[in-house]
């Protein structure tokens, strides 16, 4: 079983993640983790914070001479902004600075204050902040290396920003792995329109959301299980995406289209060929049937809501005197869908790696490889 925890506040000293369950004998390239962290920081429309941070993961345990030993991996990312927040975020001493009391709609602010019995919204927003997604990406980057060593790849790309959408039927999946564009969109013309849309939103003090797609290739058949609700991989993948801040909907394969079309158009018919064995000409199911992978690519889409902190602030209340006020305007992103797409790939890498370990077990990479080989032999696969 794979599991991870993260810790750390947005403006605290650092973010820490502990990842347990990665088998011994995996080669880990620390630079690859940092490349993913840099990619999460990109994106036209991000706020001033991204000019301060240059995220790097320090590996504090679990890896020796570039190789895992089977024990928990600790990853730490320093917050460079910490230097500007030392007094406001101090562990000891007297409270410093004004309390944040104007709740922001769309944030954890108001409910968090009530639930945790706090009087400064900062006590809530520090941990609710998507700064934490840097830790998720570091964890996912290790999981991506684990999967890659078994021939499984996880990619993501942006398909929609504020309603500017790429044509989903003309996606060239071969372009996604090498795409380095700053909005993580493989359609240059659409990306330019997305950029314009973000520029316009920023000028009017507004924000945008959008949608990204995560594709997993080289997937073994049979990950997950139909036998119990919490073993179904479709549910686990949806949860992995829904657990990302601001993600409000997840689609598996042609998910939404199922509501509008008959069965004759929506199911992936099976054919047989001696070389290919049983194969399908379509992948409406997004690679999942009965809560299990069917060997096709896993295709998932996630919708991100528009960033809730607006520079033209929304109506709200001040928690100290219950007066109606405008929400506080913290420095903020205008659009972070590109960043979220990198987080999405990281979370799916984690969830797929967990399912691989559940299916093929073992604490050593060599045992897992042998187990996959035996399984493929039984299924008559090369
Ligand atoms: C990569 C990323 C960056 C984000 N940046 C901001 C931001 O700058 N300002 C903001 O108000 N919300 C931002 N958010 C969204 C909030 O963190 C999120 O909406 C909030 O914590 C409430 O959680 P919920 O939307 O899941 O209900 C960001 C989310 C992600 C994934
Ligand atoms: C720090 C990151 O994103 C932050 C997510 C975030 C929020 O409310 O979620 C609010 C902003 O934080 P700040 O108030 O410090 O500018 C974003 O910059 C990051 O992605 O690394």
What is this entry, summarized?
This protein is α+β, with helices and mostly antiparallel strands. It has helices at 30-40, 49-52, 109-116, 122-128, 133-148, 188-203, 233-242, 263-266, 337-360, 365-378; strands at residues 3-7, 14-20, 57-61, 63-64, 67-68, 73-78, 153-161, 164-165, 210-217, 247-252, 270-273, 277-280, 288-289, 292-293, 298-304, 315-317, 324-326.
Explain what you see:
There is one protein chain. The protein is an alpha+beta fold. Helices cover 30% and strands 20% of the residues. It is built from ten helices and 17 strands. The strands form six sheets. A five-stranded antiparallel beta sheet has the order 8-7-9-15-10. The chain has a four-stranded antiparallel beta sheet with strand order 1-2-6-3, covered by helices on one side. A two-stranded antiparallel sheet has the order 4-5. Helix 3 (109-116) packs across helix 4 (122-128) and helix 7 runs antiparallel to helix 9. The longest helix has 24 residues, at 337-360. The relative contact order is 0.18. The model has no long low-confidence stretch (mean pLDDT 96). It binds flavin mononucleotide (FMN) and the ligand C=C(O[C@@H]1CC(C(=O)O)=C[C@@H](OP(=O)(O)O)[C@H]1O)C(=O)O. Flavin mononucleotide is lined by residues 47, 106-108, 128-130, 133, 244-246, 305, 307-309, 332-333, 336, 339-340, 343. Belongs to the chorismate synthase family. Homotetramer. It is an enzyme of class 4 (lyase). Its EC number is 4.2.3.5.
């Amino acid at each position: 079983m794979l599991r991870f925890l993260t810790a750390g506040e947005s403006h605290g000293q650092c973010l820490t993640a502990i990842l347990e369950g990665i088998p011994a004998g995996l080669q880990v390239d620390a630079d690859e983790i940092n490349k993913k962290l840099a990619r999460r920081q990109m994106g036209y429309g991000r706020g001033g914070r991204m000019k301060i941070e240059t995220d790097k993961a320090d590996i504090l345990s679990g890896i020796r001479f570039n190789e895992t030993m089977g024990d928990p991996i600790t990853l730490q990312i320093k917050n460079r902004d910490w230097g500007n927040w030392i007094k406001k975020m101090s562990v000891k001493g007297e409270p410093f600075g004004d309390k944040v009391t104007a709740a922001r709609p769309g944030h954890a602010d108001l409910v968090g204050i009530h639930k945790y019995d706090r009087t400064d919204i900062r006590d809530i927003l520090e941990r609710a902040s998507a700064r934490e997604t840097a830790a998720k990406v570091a964890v996912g980057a290790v999981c991506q290396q684990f999967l890659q060593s078994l021939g499984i790849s996880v990619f993501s790309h942006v398909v929609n920003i504020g309603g500017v959408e790429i044509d989903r039927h003309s996606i060239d999946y071969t372009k996604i792995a090498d795409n380095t564009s700053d909005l993580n969109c493989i359609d240059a013309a659409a990306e330019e329109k997305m950029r314009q849309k973000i520029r316009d939103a920023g000028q009017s003090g507004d924000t945008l959301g959008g949608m990204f797609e995560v594709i997993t290739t080289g997937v073994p058949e049979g990950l997950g299980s139909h036998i119990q609700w919490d073993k179904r991989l479709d549910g686990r993948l949806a949860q992995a995406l829904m657990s990302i801040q601001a993600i409000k909907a997840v689609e598996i394969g042609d998910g939404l289209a199922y509501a509008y079309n008959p069965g004759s158009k929506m199911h992936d018919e099976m054919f047989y060929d001696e070389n290919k064995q049983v194969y399908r000409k379509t992948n409406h199911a997004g690679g999942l049937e009965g809560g299990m992978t069917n060997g096709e690519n896993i295709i998932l889409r996630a919708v991100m809501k528009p960033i809730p902190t607006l520079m033209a602030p929304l109506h709200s209340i001040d928690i100290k005197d219950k007066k109606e006020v405008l929400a506080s305007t913290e420095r903020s992103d205008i659009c972070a869908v590109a960043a979220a797409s990198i987080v999405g790939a990281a979370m799916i890498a984690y969830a797929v790696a967990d399912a691989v370990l559940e299916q093929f077990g073992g604490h050593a990479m060599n045992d897992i490889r042998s187990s996959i080989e035996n399984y493929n032999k039984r299924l008559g696969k090369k």
